[in-house]
Amino acid sequence: MAATIRDVARLAGVSPSTVSRALSMPGVVNATTRARVQAAADRLGYEPNRAARGLITGRTGNIGLVVPDLANPFFPSVVKGVQARARASDVAVFLADTDEDARAEAGLVRALAKQVDGMILCSPRASQEDLAAIAQETTVVLVNRLVEGIAAVTFDNEGGMRQAVAHLVALGHRKIAWVGGPQTSWSSAHRILGLTAAARDSGAELIEVGHFAPTYDGGMAAADQAVATGATAVVTYNDLVAIGLLARLHARGISVPDDLSVVGVDDIAMSRMSRPALTTVRLPKQRAGEIAVELLLAVLDAPDPDTIVGSRGSLPGELIVRDSTGVAHRQARP
Amino acid sequence: MAATIRDVARLAGVSPSTVSRALSMPGVVNATTRARVQAAADRLGYEPNRAARGLITGRTGNIGLVVPDLANPFFPSVVKGVQARARASDVAVFLADTDEDARAEAGLVRALAKQVDGMILCSPRASQEDLAAIAQETTVVLVNRLVEGIAAVTFDNEGGMRQAVAHLVALGHRKIAWVGGPQTSWSSAHRILGLTAAARDSGAELIEVGHFAPTYDGGMAAADQAVATGATAVVTYNDLVAIGLLARLHARGISVPDDLSVVGVDDIAMSRMSRPALTTVRLPKQRAGEIAVELLLAVLDAPDPDTIVGSRGSLPGELIVRDSTGVAHRQARP
DNA sequence: ATGAAAGCGCTAACAG
DNA sequence: CTGTTAGCGCTTTCAT
Predict the structure, then answer these.
(1) CA of A79: which chain B residue's CA is closest?
(2) Same domain, B182 and B85
(3) Per its UniProt record, what InterPro entries does this chain match (chains A, B) (predicted)?
């Protein structure tokens, strides 16, 4: 059995409360007793029981993290960022994968809520109402989604899309196709906003191809329709879709970027490895995870949380140019 | 504030102990009182506080899961399996990513140990001694690693490698190169055992190229040495390495599989998407995660854990043939 | 079948 | 500065 605070107290010849103070409010106890307590604790390998502490302080030192699908490489990156930042503050992370099931999401959140100080919901599938209800029960930080009154860290989707369009227009493209993500996706909706504005400003034509699963297969499915638009460049909801699209284009003998240019979003590891390497708008995924933890901790510690909830961060995307984008037409080249 | 057991008791007009019994030992209480308690609990949205329960029962209903690096696509799959199986048994999962740091591993385990009933250590980097020490403090299940006296779920590395060799030999290959993983990797060591035996049995020659990082860059680094061996086929530690190798070969103008055949291990999602698609030994990663949870739960519930610790599962690998393997030489073809 | 009481490990008042 | 007391929310004897 692991050592308790009473074991340490007995060994150090003090009361349990002194041990508690010596360990968590060092300034308040006599230096020599503190040293004695510390020594006893070390000798017994004492680690306070967080659950017991949480019972009385109301703070568990744990946070929850909910993601829709770890198989999408976007999320492990965010998780990694959350992990790293949480560890630095000595908080432990409960992870839940909802398998893209919006209902499971609500259930998991409720089950976890009791054991955590707050939760980070990553690209949640739940409805705005459910999210609001959840935020009522526990402190919540949203990643990649904006809901009134809830703290969030998002990406600058509009800015990222502007960069992509600027790049393509500079290469001579005037007709750009957009392969959208899931119908309900918050970020897909915002990306199209940026795309539309950028196309208008630069005199390019934007053609929406529709909504597809945010997966490799989704990209395969979208490819033929994208080609049929007659566009010379395609921007996809994310890199996974772009890579699926690339595969289908290759199978059809359509050369990228000679016949068609392709731009993705995310910059997952795979994008660098695809052939041709994928031009993409890099989203600082890991950083988003770190910031989400900081935001959550800040809200938890704030005397007036509302002031912080207002200050949400929007992280810039960065255009990474690789081989999948080229001039508008093979024929246009010398 | 969330409802407590006393709130439910008051509303139902019974004592807290009755509520406790009604909810967790339904057979023991009068049917009508049970109904009343249930109704009260539902109305208040009562969820028992697990931390408080754990304090007295000694069981938290939580498990810990430690992985070395979520950026390696192998691990998210295992995590997903663990998640799914844990959720089915209503247990919550603490996740920790150690960033390949063996020392951080030990520290994280100790920090988590107090809050969980047991831990799943996935391909741990820690030394055998550290692992044994950890297993002393808390119940442990190892994934992809074998240590005396600790429950584990492993993959049949030898069998997988035999399948790979049989496939290559059938295609006419007689000289096969092996690109190993990290020097300390348990699975790398076991894969080479299977490779050696299979090569001996089939009269093929096996050439070890050395140890490389289990990453894309590791594969890039290994490519030229693999080519220099004069082998007609290369088997790599994992798919990530194989894909890096593919990239370097392509850059050098070496055609796969015409000039060289390549086989990976794992069957990560990326392998299907690479060009050429990668022949690989599929490891049931997600299943391994599920089994790890089952094993852990079984050990926790067992009156005599040792009987279970003995019965570890070894999951078979499955050869998935794709485009990266072909006949021994371009010249050999008609 | 139910209630009262005790206590899991810890911290926070309150005395001293 | 330190010890004593009480109690977080829950389960589990022990009575009744």
Answers:
(1) B70
(2) no
(3) HTH_LacI (IPR000843), LacI/GalR-like_sensor (IPR046335), Lambda_DNA-bd_dom_sf (IPR010982), Peripla_BP_I (IPR028082)
pLDDT at position B331 is: 47
Please name the residue ranges forming H helices in B124-238.
128-137, 157-170, 186-202, 216-228
Residues A283 and A316: their CA atoms lie apart, in Å, by 7
Local confidence band at B105 (pLDDT 50, 70, 90 cut-offs): confident
Q: Give the residue among B272, B214, B208, B273 at the shortest CA–CA distance from B245.
A: B214
Which whole-number Å values give the CA distances from A224 to A256, B61, B165, in the listed order? 14, 49, 39
Among residues B109, B19, B32, B28, which one has the least CA distance to residue B67? B109
Per DSSP, what are the bridge partners of residue A193?
A: none
* B260/B166 same-domain check: yes
Phi, then psi, of A279 in degrees rounded to 5: -70, 135
pLDDT number for residue A27? 86
- DSSP line for B218-275: HHHHHHHHHHHTT-SEEEESSHHHHHHHHHHHHHTT--TTTT-EEEEEE--HHHHHSS
Chain D positions within 7 A of any protein Cβ atom are 1-5, 7-13
Residue among A87, A108, A243 whose CB faces B273 most closely: A243
Tell me: do A259 and A306 sit in the same domain: no
pLDDT of residue A334: 38
Mutate to test the interface with A, among B5, B50, B70, B101 (most CBs of A within 10 A): B70
Q: How far apart are CA B280 and CA B318, in angstroms?
A: 8
Record: contact A55-B60, CB cut-off 8 A: no
Structure tokens at B278: 């990668």
Q: Which of B94, B97, B114 sits opposite A47 (nearest CB)?
A: B114
Q: Do A111 and B92 touch (CB under 8 A)?
A: yes
Please report the residues numbered 9 through 48 in chain A whose beta carbons come closer than 8 angstroms to any beta carbon of chain B. Answer: 47-48
Structural domain span for residue A290: 62-155+285-316
Bridge partners of residue B210, in order along the sequence? B179
Q: Give the gap in angstroms from C-alpha A173 to the nearest C-alpha of chain B.
A: 27
Nearest CA-CA partner of B275 in A323, A329, A227: A323
Is B67 within the bounds of a domain?
yes
**CA dist., res. B238 & res. B211, Å (int):** 12
pTM assigned to the model: 0.92
Are the C-beta atoms of B222 and B236 separated by less than 8 Å? yes
Closest alpha carbon to A63 in A103, A100, A114, A137: A114
CA closest to A90 among chain B residues: B111
Total number of domains in chain B: 3
What is the domain-level CATH number for residue A176?
Answer: 3.40.50.2300
* Continuous segment of H or E residues that includes residue B151: strand B151-155
Distance CA B327, CA A273 (A): 26
DSSP state of A217: H
Question: Of how many residues is chain B composed?
Answer: 334
**What is the amino acid identity at position A203?**
G
In this predicted model, what pLDDT tens digit does every residue of A234-291 receive, in sequence order?
999 999 999 999 999 999 999 999 999 999 999 999 999 999 999 999 999 999 999 9
Q: Are residue B294 and residue B232 in the same domain, yes or no?
A: no
- Residue A198 belongs to a domain: yes
